[in-house]
Design a protein that fits this description.
Shape of chain B: flat
Number of domains of chain A: 2
Distance between the termini of chain B: 59 Å
Number of strands of chain B: 0
Largest sheet of chain B: none
Number of helices of chain B: 6
Largest sheet of chain A: none
Radius of gyration of chain B: 24 Å
Distance between the termini of chain A: 86 Å
Oligomer: heterodimer
Order of helices and strands of chain A: HHHHHHHH
Strand content of chain A: under 5%
Structural class of chain B: mainly alpha
Radius of gyration of chain A: 23 Å
Order of helices and strands of chain B: HHHHHH
Chain lengths: 263, 192
């Protein structure tokens, strides 16, 4: 044991750090850092956090108050870096289509805000649980934004590039897992601490494996912007189509409730 | 397990289901659908068969059968009319989806979209899906009078003709815009 950390935890830590270094190397070798600067920054921040935490735990012990505060402080930076990486993936998927990208930005921000608000309201209002609650809110927002992004892309028939998909899946699954883990930690704070750390490490390790697989090839370059239609086309055709859809709906409504139309 | 914990687990479960559904791609969807040429691919609409459908759903035919044909024949005709009605309903849905696809492609390829129009279309899509399912079940259960579907034919035939005109107009505008852009570029100007 080092600083109160069990042997298995140390092994997991080493494996996660090695996998993180591998992802960073892949980003550099395949030149994917050009396409994913925010994601590269996130992986770098994660590695830096792991090294800093390890030295902190060795010096002050795993269960000390200083380590706890430092751990959550660095976690705040890491979650913000992850949010930036998610924003980058959203941009990759939709920014070529300027019209729907502007709409998606508003919707995604609204969704993130609402989920954060819900998490804040649902949290237990105790100061020692403030960090896990805030972390859970941010993780849930990240996961919700990724899901909404893919729903949006599906609705409009926009295909996400393979690497973007895999990175987003890894980020979403990890965020979902962390949100659940934080919730259980919030409820059973004292008895769950060690298991919480191990499960968190396992989930992160699984995400790193997925990202390594996704980044094994350079990202295929996509044209920066689609050839867009003139502005007037949308303004003149879309209201007409909506009107026709409404008429079609009205006709179905008449079949559904025939007595309404009888004179 | 407390209610808030249950809600949170439920929310995460919904997120994961949503992610799985959004990422799942049926084979026919596996090509980018933002190409305007894809709108012309399946030009044949169910309106081509409109006279036959009208004939099949005509109440006069069925009244005549009620008076002169055997019960077995009446039953068979009723089943066949139900089959025609269901097929027709599917065709109406196909037309609805064709309109939707047009609207989506235009939205994707537009430099600006209005949230109001997009949200309205989403609402109409959900409403149509709900009504379609309800009518289908109603027809299968024998609660919907089949001839009432006839009213739809007039609407859909009108729609198809007007949509064709709109698409033609769209194509002409896009071609004119492309021509204008290329002539401006040739003169070394920047299109803002």
């Amino acid at each position: 044991m080092i600083g109160g950390i069990a042997q298995f935890q140390l092994m997991m830590w080493a494996a996660s750090t090695a996998a993180g270094v591998f992802v960073l190397v892949l980003l550099a070798v395949r030149k994917n850092y050009r396409a994913y600067p925010a994601f590269t920054f996130y992986i770098f921040v994660n590695l830096a956090q792991a090294i800093l935490l390890f030295s902190m735990f060795r010096r002050w012990g795993y269960l000390s108050r200083a380590s706890w505060l430092f751990g959550w402080g660095t976690q705040a930076v890491t979650v913000c870096a992850r949010a930036l990486a998610v924003a980058e993936i959203c941009r990759h998927v939709l920014s070529r289509y300027t019209g729907i990208w502007a709409l998606a930005q508003r919707l995604l921000l609204l969704c993130a805000g609402l989920v954060l608000l819900y998490s804040g309201l649902a949290a237990r209002h105790q100061w020692q649980l403030a960090f896990p609650s805030a972390d859970r809110g941010l993780e849930l927002s990240i996961a919700a934004v990724i899901v909404l992004l893919f729903l949006f892309a599906r609705y409009y028939g926009v295909r996400a590039e393979r690497t973007d998909r895999s990175l987003a899946i890894g980020l979403c699954l990890y965020s979902c897992f962390r949100a659940l883990n934080d919730t259980i930690l919030e409820r059973y704070l004292y008895g769950y601490d060690t298991l919480w750390t191990i499960l968190g490490m396992l989930a992160f390790f699984a995400s790193l494996v997925l990202w390594s697989w996704a980044l094994r090839k350079p990202r295929t370059e996509i044209a920066a912007e689609e050839n867009l239609l003139p502005l007037g086309v949308y303004q003149s055709i879309t209201p007409q189509i909506n009107l026709r859809l409404r008429l079609l709906n009205d006709q179905l409504c008449q079949i559904w409730k025939p007595e309404v139309t009888r004179h | 397990m407390s209610l808030s914990l249950f809600l949170l687990f439920g929310f995460v479960g919904i997120l994961l289901l949503g992610l799985g559904w959004a990422l799942w791609e049926p084979r026919e969807r596996r090509k980018l659908q933002t190409d305007p040429r894809s709108l012309d691919e399946d030009g044949e609409r169910h309106v081509t068969y409109l006279p036959q459908i009208r004939q099949a759903l005509s109440p006069m035919d069925f009244d005549f059968l009620l008076k002169s044909a055997s019960r077995e024949l009446q039953r068979r005709v009723r089943l066949e009319r139900l089959g025609v009605a269901l097929a027709y309903l599917s065709a109406v849905r196909a037309d609805f989806h064709r309109l939707l696809r047009t609207a989506r492609v235009i939205a994707v390829l537009s430099p600006e979209v209005a949230a109001v129009h997009e949200l309205e279309r989403l609402r109409l899509t959900a409403k149509f899906a709900w009504q379609y399912k309800m009518i289908r079940w109603k027809l299968l259960a024998g609660f919907a009078p089949v001839p009432q579907l006839d009213g739809l034919s007039n609407l859909v035939s009108g729609l198809s003709v007007r949509m064709e005109a709109a698409m033609k107009e769209l194509g002409e505008r896009a071609a004119a815009a492309a021509k204008l852009a290329s002539s401006v570029n040739r003169r070394g100007l920047d299109v803002v």
